[in-house]
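User: What would this chain look like folded?
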Amino acid sequence: MSITIDRPSTTTDRTAGCRILRRHTIVTTHGMDGVLLVAAELRACGGLVKEMAVDVREGVGCSELTCSVSMTAEEAAEFVTRLRALPSVESVDPY
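Assistant: Here's the prediction, encoded as structure tokens.
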């Protein structure tokens, strides 16, 4: 796994850090509908999503979505909370 610095934070708060690519694996239910719900939420992140891969299989109860999002540590915590609030999301794990 590589870490890429996107741009430094413009805040003076050192805990905010800088934006780096943070990879997450998101497990969803409800097949393609669940994945599309997560994809819509990722789209709301704007241009911060740098890559995304989806694994949806017929007859399997859960699907997996892996994405790399450019964000600070604080934004990453908010990101996980936001995604876990979706009804189809079973788990959100940093890669």
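Residues 21-94 form a domain with the Alpha-Beta Plaits fold (CATH 3.30.70.260). If you want, I can go into more detail on any region.
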